[in-house]
Every structure is written in structure tokens, then in C-alpha cells.
């Protein structure tokens, strides 16, 4: 992966008529990166992808790719590939012809078409499936054909819209690994859209978290998972106990509460995952409202003066009974420090 910006979205505002869907978006992507656009429904992921492919003309802003301004370059001249959620394979064509389709339209020499299709099918592990029709393939195999069909066009950037959402859970895991391998081997810069945080965490080099048409946070999976900058991102990646900071304290249902140390300077909120809450000792007390066995751990819901608290403990630790009162703590040194609430 190079350090230089390869695909750059600069001050991009995207609208459907008068409805602004994405406002002043800035994002720089490096060559060979695997980027996930992550966010809830309606946050502008697909709209951003449509602008990169050239299917939506920006209201303002600029898109550059590989040094060229492509803001107003037609979709078919951008060297940007797109893999849809619903593969969109031609049912009457064989796997080979599906993959060869775009190359034939470009009127490339037959020898080159054959070479590129063979290489593309080998890349996605479908070397032996040339003459099958899409209906004779599993969902995962159809997805691979769609991937090969885009790769043989040698795009500068490949966009994937919810690429794994049509697959069952087991296949989705398998295709995650596969997609990562294909990306590494081909070196193609990829941007994929997902609303599944686990998928983004598992696959991406960097995650772009979007909310209401704007970027909330950009970072590595570790950054986003461990160091969410805002309440929205913390919530999205599984923090359950989130409190605003007020001076030296956190603001709770029972008013300001001090922790065992002052919150970091500049913090506007603190957040704990359930497994970051100390149970069995600490400065606070709560009543166990519910307990659920979750394999390796037990999950608890506590009613406390601070408000509801979700905690999790190793299943090997003694269990707390519903109705009992338990001491707990919110250790400040374990909390994620939120810059924005
Ligand atoms: N063709 C359209 N005309 C008008 N508004 C649209 C159109 N397409 C999308 N929008 C609006 O733009 C905003 C962003 O939509 P977009 O499809 O980009 O979201 P998304 O993050 O991809 O959501 P999802 O995960 O549901 O696909 C939404 O408020 C949506 O209602």
C-alpha cells in the first residue's frame, strides 16, 4: 500500500433534487487500501458510492482518482468497478461468458480475453466452473463470479455494495476471508459498504463511520473498536454504559458522580463495554434485574442510581442471582474517552 492519496473525495456534497444526502464529505484513500463505509440505513453510504462510480453528479466538490479529476467523467470512462449486492449475473450465459462480457464489449483480442478470464476465475477459485450457468452455482460462487467479472476489467477502484449480505452466516465468514485474499493478491483498491460492524472490523484496513450524511470517524478497526470518538460510534460498536462528563464527574440519573479518578481533560463523555465494568466490588451498588448465560460469560442488567448498567463477567466466576444487590465500579482507566456526545 502506498502512502499517497489515490482516490480523493474533497468537500463533496451530494443531493437528490433539493434533498441533501451527503454534505461536505472529505475522504482520502490510498492505493491498495480496503475501506469500509459503515453506518446505519440512510446515512449516505450508497449515495457516496454512486458519486464515486459516476452514477450521481455531485452538487459540489471534487473527486480525483490516480491524479486525474474525474468529478464529471462519465461512469464508463472512470475505471471504477462495481459489484452489486444482487450479483446481477446474466442467467443465460456461462460463468466464462459472464466474466468475459465487459471485455467483449471493449472488443479486446480473443486471446487476451481468454487469458484475463482464466486469470480472473483462478483468482476467485472458480477455475473449474467455466461452463456452468449461474443457476448451477451456490450463492458464494455467484458472488465470486461477480467479483471476477469486475476484476478482469482491471479497475483502479472496485466498489462493493453490501457484498456479503445475501449469503448465509457460514458462507459470509468464508467469503470475508476470500475477499480479503483476493484484495491482497490483486492489490486493487476496494471500498465496500456495510451496515454490519463485525464485517467492517474483520475486513477493512480502515473504517469510515458515517452518520446522517457526514463522516463521524475514520480509523483502523482497532481505533474504531477501542477508541470511538463520539457517542454515536461508541454505541454502534457495542459500548453500553455511556455517560456525559460534567467537570470532574459523570452525569448520571442520580446527578453528578465522581469516579476513582478524574476524567481526561477534554473528555465530553466516558463509555464502558459490559466487560469493562467491575462486578462484585466498587464504589456503586445495583440490583441484579436479569442475568443471562452467554457461553463463556454471563451478562447482567443492573438497576442502579446511575441508571441501568450492563455488565459481563467470565462464566467461571460465581454467578450473581437476580434480585441480589451487587457492588460494581466503572473504572475510569478502562473507559473509552469520547470527544463528542
Ligand atoms: N433516489 C433518491 N431520491 C431521494 N432521496 C434519496 C434517494 N436515494 C437515497 N435518498 C436519501 O438519501 C439519504 C442517504 O441514502 P443512502 O441510500 O445513501 O443511504 P445508505 O447509507 O446507503 O442506506 P442503506 O444502508 O439503507 O442502503 C437517505 O436519507 C435517503 O432517503
UniProtKB/TrEMBL annotation:
InterPro entries: AAA+_ATPase, ABC_SmlMolc_Importer, ABC_transporter-like_ATP-bd, ABC_transporter-like_CS, P-loop_NTPase, Transp-assoc_OB_typ2. It comes from the Bacteria. Residues 7-237 form the ABC transporter domain. Keywords: ATP-binding, Nucleotide-binding, Transport. Signal peptide: none annotated. GO terms for molecular function: ATP binding. The keyword Transport applies. PANTHER family: SPERMIDINE/PUTRESCINE IMPORT ATP-BINDING PROTEIN POTA, SPERMIDINE_PUTRESCINE IMPORT ATP-BINDING PROTEIN POTA. Belongs to the ABC transporter superfamily. This is ABC transporter ATP-binding protein. It comes from Nitratireductor rhodophyticola.
Amino acid at each position: 500500500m502506498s502512502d499517497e492519496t489515490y482516490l480523493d473525495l474533497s468537500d463533496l456534497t451530494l443531493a437528490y433534487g433539493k434533498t441533501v444526502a451527503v454534505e461536505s464529505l472529505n475522504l482520502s484513500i490510498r492505493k491498495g487500501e480496503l475501506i469500509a463505509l459503515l453506518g446505519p440505513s440512510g446515512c449516505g453510504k450508497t449515495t457516496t458510492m454512486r458519486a464515486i462510480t459516476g452514477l450521481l453528479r455531485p452538487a459540489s466538490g471534487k473527486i480525483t482518482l490516480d491524479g486525474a479529476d474525474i468529478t464529471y467523467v462519465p461512469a464508463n470512462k472512470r475505471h471504477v468497478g462495481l459489484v452489486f449486492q444482487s450479483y446481477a449475473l446474466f442467467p443465460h450465459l456461462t460463468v466464462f461468458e459472464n466474466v468475459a462480457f465487459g471485455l467483449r464489449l471493449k472488443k479486446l483480442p480473443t486471446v487476451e480475453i481468454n487469458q484475463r478470464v482464466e486469470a480472473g476465475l483462478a483468482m476467485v477459485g472458480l477455475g473449474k466452473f467455466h461452463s456452468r450457468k449461474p443457476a448451477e452455482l451456490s450463492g458464494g460462487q455467484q458472488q465470486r463470479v461477480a467479483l471476477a467479472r469486475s476484476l478482469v476489467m482491471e479497475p483502479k477502484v472496485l466498489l462493493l455494495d453490501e457484498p456479503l449480505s445475501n449469503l448465509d452466516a457460514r458462507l459470509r465468514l468464508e467469503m470475508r476471508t476470500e475477499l480479503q485474499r483476493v484484495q491482497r493478491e490483486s492489490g486493487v483498491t476496494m471500498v465496500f459498504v456495510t451496515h454490519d460492524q463485525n464485517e467492517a472490523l474483520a475486513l477493512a484496513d480502515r473504517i469510515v463511520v458515517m452518520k446522517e450524511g457526514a463522516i463521524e470517524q475514520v480509523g483502523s478497526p482497532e481505533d474504531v473498536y477501542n477508541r470511538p470518538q463520539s457517542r454515536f460510534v461508541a454505541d454502534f460498536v457495542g459500548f453500553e454504559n455511556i455517560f456525559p462528563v460534567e467537570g470532574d464527574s459523570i452525569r448520571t440519573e442520580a446527578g453528578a458522580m465522581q469516579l476513582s479518578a478524574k476524567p481526561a481533560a477534554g473528555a465530553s463523555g466516558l463509555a464502558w463495554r459490559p466487560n469493562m465494568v467491575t462486578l462484585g466490588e466498587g464504589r456503586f451498588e445495583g440490583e441484579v434485574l436479569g442475568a443471562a448465560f452467554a457461553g463463556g460469560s454471563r451478562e447482567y442488567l443492573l438497576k442502579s442510581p446511575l441508571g441501568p448498567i450492563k455488565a459481563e463477567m467470565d462464566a467461571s466466576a460465581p454467578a450473581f442471582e437476580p434480585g441480589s444487590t451487587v457492588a460494581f465500579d466503572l473504572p475510569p482507566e478502562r473507559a473509552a474517552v469520547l470527544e463528542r456526545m
